[in-house]
Amino acid sequence: MKYKLISLMLIMALSFQCLIKIGLISYYSLNIEYIIKELCENKDKPELNCKGKCYLKKKMGEADKAEKQSAEIFKQIEFPVFIPHSNLSLNAEYILIENSSPELKNLYSHTPNFNIFHPPLT
Fold it and tell me: Are 28 and 35 in contact (CB under 8 A)?
């Protein structure tokens, strides 16, 4: 149960980072009229025909900054791949070298079968 909860939390944390932009776009498309009337930064410039895209661009920029900051945090974390044993020591008396060559055996045998190589019967 404990591992399922931890794995579910990790999956949610990783997917949240991807889903935040989709959430911003869906919020913009559902509330476009409210964003145009209240949150648009270019209300005084109707010739730009912004329709709230300035607000969306600002929020997407903030999401990008947060994503870059989290990526930098994960770059700083170092995960050791190999942890050497601190008491490891090699002495020449413990290394055993065998000079004898192993005995080679021929385990391959082949008998050709020429019965299958004949012209077709008519």
Answer: yes
